[in-house]
Specification:
eight-stranded antiparallel barrel
């Protein structure tokens, strides 16, 4: 009888022990895995808008606008707006550094007008000289430093500008016009912030230098001989843009 009782007690203890083990509370809980850090490695495309200003320095080297006075000069300040788009790719490495390449095009109206007796047909007859930069394009490399979703960067590369010119004297004896596409260089800097995984906004400043070049002016009124005018130009732009990133994010 004692043997039977002892066996029953032992079986009961084993059952309770097993049941307790099933109900045991783990001594520690494992934390959920942390999300991967944000990365700027991606290709992107977007739109931008902004304002521009600059300087056009004209030297009437051919004398076609200053009868008997070749070499007269006129300085024209320009300003206006731009609208455009950009496409590029970035690669983030060594934790915080970002390298990329970007192509951008802008259209708009950055122009100005002056009335000058330095450019005239003689006898004090003034000339209205107008210039419009209606195209800017660039291919640039950029390098930046990222703090999570913030990126500060500098950029530089080659650039192009499309310009239109006109010169009309007060007596309407001539109406000269010139058109050119000029290449040069650009450099700038900006800051970009990733709002969400796929979208970012940027604020950017760019300087464009196009040096000096000759523009062929043709008269559309009386058919006067064409002539080359020497024009030096610079343009500066501040723009606000938005980009969609195809791969970036955590």
């Amino acid at each position: 009888m004692k043997t039977i009782i002892s066996g029953g007690v032992a079986l009961s203890l084993l059952t309770v022990s097993a049941f307790g083990a099933d109900l045991a509370v783990p001594s520690s809980f494992s934390a959920p895995p942390s999300p991967p850090p944000f990365t700027w490695t991606s290709c992107y495309g977007g739109l931008h808008a902004g304002g521009g200003w600059g300087q056009k320095d004209l030297t009437d080297s051919a004398g076609i606008l200053t009868t008997g006075t070749p070499g007269a000069t006129a300085n024209l300040g320009i300003s206006g707006y731009i609208l455009g788009g950009q496409f590029g790719c970035d690669y983030q490495f060594a934790s915080n550094w970002v390298l990329g390449i970007e192509g951008a095009v802008s259209g708009g109206d950055i122009g100005g007008t002056i009335n000058s007796t330095n450019i005239s047909t003689g006898g004090g007859d003034s000339t209205t000289f107008h210039e419009t930069t209606d195209f800017l394009g660039s291919v640039t490399g950029r390098v930046g430093f990222a703090w999570d979703r913030w990126l500060v960067y500098g950029k530089g590369g080659i650039a192009w500008a499309g310009d239109r010119y006109s010169a009309l004297d007060a007596s309407q004896l001539y109406n000269y016009n010139g058109v050119e596409t000029r290449s040069g260089w650009t450099a700038g800097a900006g800051v970009e912030w990733a709002l969400w995984k796929d979208w970012s906004v940027k604020l950017e400043y760019d300087y464009y230098g196009f040096g000096q070049g000759n523009v062929n002016f043709i008269d559309s009124t009386i058919g006067a001989p064409p002539g080359l005018e020497n024009i030096k130009q610079t343009v500066q732009v501040v723009q606000l843009g938005v980009n969609f990133h195809f791969v970036a994010g955590p």
